[in-house]
Amino acid sequence: MKIPKFINQKAEAMKKLILLFGLITFDQTSYFGQTASYNSIECYGTIRYNWALVELDGKFGFIDKHGKEIVKPKYDKIWDFGIYRDNWALVSLNGKLGFIDTKGREIVEPKYDSIESFGIKHEDYAEVKINDKFALIDKRGKEVTQMIAHE
C-alpha cells in the first residue's frame, strides 16, 4: 500500500518541529545534522535557559543550543536550578548529593547524604550530612564547620 503524499509531508513537518525543540528525530540525527550521541535530549530551556538536559545510559548532563556538551552526562539526577541556591542545581551521583552552577562547573562535589536549602536553619549557610554527622557549607560551596554528630 502506498502512503499518501500529504501524510509523508506531515511526518516531515513533525520531524522539523521536533528538531526545532532540540529533540532527537526518528532517524537519530540531531538538529545540527550530526549523529546523536545521547539516548534522549529534552527541550531546550526546561531546566536551564538555552541548555537541554541529555541522558546517556541512565546518566544526565547538559548541552547548549549549539550542541556543545556543557555538563558531561554523569549524574543520576539533576534538579532545577535555583531551588537550593540561585544559579545552582542539586545533582545526585551514586546516591550522594552536590551542586553544579550555571557555567556547568561542579561547585560542591557529590559526597553528601543530604543537603538543606540555604537559609533554612542558618541564614547564609546550608546544612549538609554524611552518615550521622553534619556540617555547614557557605555560598561558595566550602565547608565552614567540621563534621559533627548531632546530639
What keywords describe this structure?
single chain, 151 residues, mainly beta, 4-stranded antiparallel sheet, 1 helix, 12 strands, 11% helix
Describe this structure in words.
- With 151 residues, the protein is mainly beta.
- The chain has one domain.
- Residues 15-20 and 23-34 have low confidence and may be disordered.
- Strand 6 and strand 7 form a beta hairpin.
- It is 11% helix and 39% strand.
- It is built from one helix and twelve strands.
Q: What secondary-structure arrangement, pairings included, does this model have?
A:
Elements: H1 5-20, E1 40-41, E2 51-56, E3 59-64, E4 69-75, E5 77-81, E6 88-93, E7 96-101, E8 106-112, E9 114-115, E10 126-130, E11 133-137, E12 148-149
Antiparallel strand pairs: 1-2, 2-3, 3-4, 5-6, 6-7, 7-8, 9-10, 10-11, 11-12
